[in-house]
Amino acid sequence: MRTQYRLGIDAGGTFTDFVLADQSGKVRLYKALSTPADPTLAIKNGLALITEDLGVSAEDIVSQCDLCINGTTVGLNALIQHTGAKTGLICTAGHEDSIEIRLGHKEDGYRYDAQYPPAVMLVPRYLRKGVNERVISDGSVRTPMNEQDVRDACEHFLSEGVETVAVSFVWSVLNPAHEERAGQIVREMMPDTVLTVGSQLYPQVREYTRTSTAITNAYLAPILKKYVDSIDDYFQSLGAKYPVRYFQSNGGLAVGQAMTDRSVYAINSGPASAPTAGLYVAAPFKKNNVITVDMGGTSFDITLTKDGVTNLNKNIDFLRYRIGVPMIQVETLGAGGGSIGRIDEMGLLQMGPQSAGAEPGPACYDQGGTEPTVSDANLVLGYLNPDGLVGGRLPLDSDKAHAAVKSRIADPLDLSVEQAAYGMFTIVNSNMVNGIRRVSVERGYDPRDFVLVGAGGATAAHITAIAEEMGIDMIVLPKLASGLCAFGQIISDVKYNYMATAPVRLDNTAAYQRIDKLYKEIEAQGVEHLVADGFKKSKIAISRSIEMRYVGQVHECTVEIDKFAINSKSIERVKEAFHQRHEQLYTYSERHNDVEVVNIESTLYGLVDKPKPPRIGKGASPKKALKGHRKAIFSANGKAQKTPVYDGGALGAGASIKGPAVIEEETTTIVVQPGWGAKLDANGSYIIKRGKK
Amino acid sequence: MAKSKSKSKKPAKRTPKVDPITLSVVRGVLETTQREMTLSLEKTARSSVFNLAHDYSTALFNHTPEMILQGQDIPIHLGSLIPAMKAVSSYFDGDINPGDLILHNDPDYAGSHIIDLCMYKPVFYKGKHVFWTVCKGHLTDIGGPVPAGYNPDAKEIFAEGLRIPPIKIWDKGVPRDDIVNMLLTNMRARRDQEGDFNALIGACQVGERNLIALLDKYGVKQVQTCIAELLDMADRHMRSLIGAVKDGTYVGTAILEDAGHGFGDFDITATVTIKKDTCHIAIESPPQIPYFINSYEGNSYSGVYLGLMMFAQLPPPYNEGLYRGVTVDMGEYGSLCNAKPPAPHMNCTTTPMETLTDAVRLAFEKAAPSQVSASWGHANGCNIAGWDTRHDEEYVTMVLASIISGAGATPEQDGWHACGPECCFGALTSGDIELLEYSYPIIIHQYSLMIDSGGAGKFRGGSGTCWEVEPLDKPMTLITFGEGRRIPAMGAAGAASGMVEQKVGRLEITRNNKVDVIKENVIETINPGDKAANKNPGGGGFGNPLERPVDKIVWDMKNGLVSVNGAKEDYGVVITDEETLQVDLKATEKLRAELGRKAA
Hints:
Radius of gyration of chain B: 24 Å
Largest sheet of chain B: 7 strands, antiparallel
Number of domains of chain B: 3
Distance between the termini of chain A: 45 Å
Oligomer: heterodimer
Structural class of chain A: alpha+beta
Helix content of chain B: 25-40%
């Protein structure tokens, strides 16, 4: 860090988190209520909080920042609420409906319930215009493009008030000439329109995915542009020395221009910084296999990083829209502090995905909520402080929690309230464990090889129980947990993905040469962009991945490879990595069969200097930090035991606490289950480990 | 979250026998296990039918064997897996050992059609047989005279492909390569079939891995107690739904149209008798015929259960307990829906199954008026085969994109577009067109929704699709199957369409600018330069179309889903200006009144 501060601002559903790191290694966390209608308002409010705390004006902070980083939910909200811009699609004639046919299926398998609605179309059928043109599967032109069709489409869009246009043709990925020409015509005829060209945004095989990704990008681009412009202007008015960086769903930063051109990269940026933060807090303990879990008020987000490389998703349905571009794989469950417990039609206890949200909130918030939530269960179990959270600023009502659990869960199941609360705790943990399996076991990883990193305010009450269930031995829980994603953003690098498609069988020299050439081309392009962003070549890093499959298969395995020249010798290393990955995932490989490549990708990083890690001082011993005892429940029989409660803020580095215990931090409450022990490290993280049996 | 349309909102009364918390956890693990098996199949399988189209299913059974978890896969497979598992297990009774792996497809042992291959792996724990992991998938070929198995000329099952009774392909852990080699030697596109064998085996192993972990954690006894309770709960739930219907006998008859076999139309009748909380479903169908639309009993179970589920509308997960209060009589042995060897049957998973489902659905609609959704478009598709000069190899596949019909409207909303056919209920995916063109030497000129194809109703049926293809450089064989080419998908709650022709399926072949419309099952040669367009029916509507709000009809017109004529004939809406879609409200009111009188 060359200047005084680095500022990260992460907008969440309920709160916008502000993390301010300074040169001394001090990291401060502030929270302001989110203001979805005008996101800049929350930023102003947050800066006011900092001013109040430090006595430094917003101008002085911002002008002394080396980086101001913003994670935004503007794109996400527009996609959830269908408030994107009016979008037109220009596509190959005969294929106007691929985004509505959606490969002919419902995404939840077959479901018999009569209320399950189709996805809302981001571009209705009357704004999807076909053009006579055709490229075929070898990249050759079968039918030249009829330019008049493109002009007619533009006329139609102009008369309908379309603000943004996507162009996506069949096989443009092998021959983009028609798409490029159509794009030129759109620019000519609709100069005020934002344009998205499918093969430029997502140059990969799969027409449906590419078109859907292009449409989503187009739909969000005008909104992102407006937002970025207002933020950039605001920070410039405060005297920012450097452009604001925006956080992307791929887990890296981008400048505003990249964000508006490739707005689809912004849609799930909120939880995408968790892996970077997780690796950072686990690094002092020499761990680079990390699963992060982030439990807030309504949801539970999971990510996985193996050997420092984070699971990515490509070509998935996100909020019911097929998105191709790489995103950090975030498994999101409806399991937060506000998740509601209920007895389902079959008579079984279910937790979530419905949530009491911020309004009315859990029954114990005493704001009119009557449904029993996870927080209510945790209060009944003695995990949460009945005097209230956040140092008493959020009071809790134990009687209300008790009544809700009794009437909705305990009585119907014929259990005691304590047993029912423990059951709720168990089921929500079980849901979270099944979610963790989806990012680990289903991707071929054994969760026992990982440390669990906790983020979010509600996680700490559950994380030891989850680790116990999964057979994980070590947990890292930073004191900053509830703002960990914002912290992750300020230690992230700039990151851009460059893709190419190369459907070739790996049995001839021409194939190796083609792949080698494509890698060199896309990487040269990436270096050029980063240099333009102000990065020196020494601060640029590159990693590669390649998607392969056995000839005849349709789904690919993605394999990370090092950067080396691809030739007839080195290709054997690539193939071997594929066979091994296939075995790991699916229990077998077919070494005697031919392998083919489909897509390749290079990720380019512009490396950003990291702030100093936070340090904490000596502080008090556990004995001195002991606040008292309360009855807490750690078993299915509902029997309570006397459990020590510690003031986490008072504990010093090296303090060691044996479970069962509760440690109360300013913004989170840690429950250490029996058989586990917690130790506060000088880096500001609790290390929670399983005791010897 | 799925909500059940149960009439009694209160959960079924339960007597707790097991810890309710462990019960929920066990159910979650079973669901996760099945999900992981499905994912493994999807990612590894070779044939496009399999991995692009999701034409596969997975299930878990206990040792008895009772289905303890039905995957959220293709419904046509899963009803039949219940009797199939029982037939396979009793065939090897006393000789089921650790390390065995059993393969089967024969409908005489309750298989569906022989191109669906089933793999069964017994799961042993501490020497004791506890579970079966099972999966089933549609291969691209099963030998026989016609590529891809659908042979409209077959008079007997022997002319359709290889029948495989239950056989062990692993015996106590030892792979029987000679047997597998013999099977593969008799199939086209061997590499793909071998890959699909491996994918099925891999999925069974993934399931086994998870179930053993479950047993490690909770022990056999506790897990089995939980599973018994899960089965009981499903039973209680289905009984509570049936119990809410008035006792009585309800009859539904659906017509199976003649798709070129020359035997004429057939009636399939379902008689549903409801007595307290049980129901008996009796099927009547004509004698079997020497044409590939006979259904053996196992497959027919799928059709009956699907009709039942269109009534029950339950959210997953499903298990065999649902069917304990339901008895079924498939009719005379040797009839169309209860065929006996050597009846040819390859088309059975769509025809007559969807008509059978319709008959059951209609009987339940009579039992519970206004609660049952409309029928979906029936499958009317094609297989393609030929020579791929790009790799100098043969290709053959069923084209799932060619059977994507419209979904039926429900009591609450319009039917989904492009989501069918009925027998798959939206679980199928059709595959990306670029991947299809990459895998096969074809050009797909069109894959689109079709105007006026959704059944008219207060809630409109979903639109059917058109899939148009041309071979790249060599002649291609195109074989059609299915029906729904004359009789549109059945509406519900008084829905009917005035304009029928656009709502049914057909094949249109364009040669030298001349279009042939074909409404039968045929084998055609398509040359480069020719185009074949396979059109699929839309779904049935729900409720009186004259009650559909005019603004919804105008919106459909703006989006090219309803034509000016369609608005008039189907909905009684009169448009004065085709450009602006101006509605003549007075004329509309008059026409609607007139159509209403006519219908009455």
